[in-house]
Structures are given as C-alpha cells and as structure tokens.
Amino acid sequence: MIMQGNGRLLALARKNLEEIREKNSAVQERRLREIYLKIPRIKNIDEQMSEQMRELFGLVLKRDDKIAEKIAQIEAANLLLQAERGRLLREAGYSSDYTDEIYSCSKCKDSGMCGTELCECLIKLRNNEITKELGTLIRSGDESFDNFDLSYYNGNSDDDSLLSDRDHMSLVLETCREYAMGFGKGSANLIFMGDTGLGKTFLSACIARDVAKTGFSVAYDSVQTALNSFETKRFARDPAEASEAEMKVSSYLDCDLLILDDLGTEMITSFSIAALYQIINTRLIGEKPTIISTNYSFSELEAKYNPQILSRIEGEYLSLPFRGQDIR
After folding, report:
1. Please, what's the largest Cα pairwise distance for the chain?
2. pLDDT digits (tens), the chain, 328 positions
C-alpha cells in the first residue's frame, strides 16, 4: 500500500530507479562496444537477428498459408545464430550473457512493478527516501553497536544488585543488537528508560542505522517535534506547511520503525495527548514497531498521561532500563 501523503517520496524513488536503469543500460552499451570491437562477427550476428525479428513481425501481419513454416525456419536460423554468438563469447573468455540486458532487480526487471503491485526494490527505494527525510538521528556516522563503549559504566556491583552497571548495560547492548538483526513486521516495541546521558539515543541510532540498511523505513523525531507536526497538519493556514506536516504525520504512522525520543518532556495538552494516543494505537493495530525513550519512570509518566496511553505502553512495550552515571 502506498502511504498517503508520500507521493513525492515515491516519485523520488521512481527517479532513483530510473537512474539505476540508465546506469545498467550504459554498462550494457559499453560491453557491446567492447565486444563488437574485439569480435566483429558478433555485431554481424546481432544485425542478422534484428532483421529476423523484423521479418517475423512482418509475417504475423500477413495472411499467408505458409506462415507457420516460414516462422519455424526463421526461429531455427535464430537459434543457430544464438549458439554461435555464445560460443564466440566463451572462446574469447566472456560469459555467454556478457552483453545481455542488466537488471538490478530480477523480479521486476527494474520496472518497479510486479503486476499491479509495487516491487520490493521500489519499496526499498521509497523507504530510503522516508529515512532520509526523517533520519536526523543518524548524523555523526559512528552510530554502531561496536562503538558503544561499556568501559564508561561502573564495573562494580553494589549490595542491592547482582549485576554491575557495566554488566547490565552489556545485556541491554546485546538485546538492541539482536533486535536490529532480527527486525521485521511484528518485532517488539521497546521503551528505553533511564536518566540522561546513559546511551539511549546512541543505541536508538545504532538500531535505526542497521534496520535502515536492510531496506526498512525508519522515522525518528522527538515526541515534541512529532506532536508539533500533528498540530501543524491540523491548524496551519499555509498549504505548503500543512502538506509538509501531513507527510511527516503519515510517515510517523506508517513507517516500518518509528523512534520517538524524550517522552514526557513535551508540552502536555489535550491535543498532544490525543495525537500521542493516535501514534501509539495506530502503530500497535498495524503491528508496526516503535521505540520510545524517556528519562521518566512509569510512575512519573502515570502522572502525565491518561490510563489509555499508559496501559498500552506498559502492556505492549518491552522496557529496557538504562543504568549508570551520565557518560556524555
């Protein structure tokens, strides 16, 4: 299903696909020039086969009692030429399909469509555009699980815990790594909970980068920015501003993975509560995973939000507590 409000992103994806087709075509043309120069007989064969195709087309348009016999003769001659062409290529050290048309996607042959449905290749290109539009989380370029430094966390456990902060965060790190590796429709919803400076945003970025690499669309924003988009979509007088907000809202609701940062720091109003509920509930119904980070505990969130929101977060999200001292 094409996401409402994202026609512009789909158009960009189609443009990218056209560029892929042009690059593949350029490679094929370069290979043909190379082969024609090295093996002139192949150029002659291609010209003969082209003439055969024109002759076949002409026969189909004519009424001739011997048309079947003539078609069979042309097809037999064509097969002989194909066999000779392949042999010449192999003898020169090339594969027999070296000059064939090149397709990056074997399913749709770079058309972007499988029947009446969007092909997976075009969906991935569209998802890349969604991620680029909303991917402000992936900025510095060093967001990888291997760069998450556990040495910043205390390696000594206290009397109240069997695990040190370092051991605990090592489990959190591996949970996030496995989540990204196995991401797909129906993956779990996560809520990262803990004080500022404990790595919540960094691990969110690590997940976002790995998930986006596999072709899924990833949208990221702070909760406040996301809710502002809902408000702009609803109340903006400028059509361009409203359209941009509508695109973002559509992406929040429909992207494969949504990451919302800083839950609880936004301005709480009846409108923001309704918009937040729409995001959470719509994505739960559609089985589209969401990752939320917050500096607040569940008891603190309970004081801010209505039971409908809290019950869905507590019941449908896997809580990952972040422990330690501010590592920034």
Report:
1. 98
2. 333 345 667 788 899 999 999 999 999 999 999 999 999 999 999 999 999 999 888 877 776 667 888 888 999 999 999 999 999 999 999 999 999 999 999 999 999 999 888 898 988 887 777 767 655 555 555 678 999 999 989 888 766 667 889 999 999 999 999 999 999 888 999 999 999 989 998 999 899 888 888 878 888 888 999 999 999 998 888 888 888 888 888 889 988 999 999 999 999 999 999 999 999 999 999 999 999 999 999 999 999 999 999 999 999 999 999 998 876 6
Which pair of tokens denotes residue 285? 């119904």
**Helix, strand, coil abundance in the chain, percent, nearest 5:** 60, 10, 30
Helix and strand element counts for the chain (H, E): 11, 7
pTM of the model as a whole = 0.68
Q: What is the spatial distance between Cα 127 and Cα 27, in angstroms, rounded to a whole number?
A: 26
Q: Give the amino acid at 14.
A: R
Which tokens sit at 224?
Answer: 């406040």
Which tokens hold the place of 317? Answer: 């999200």
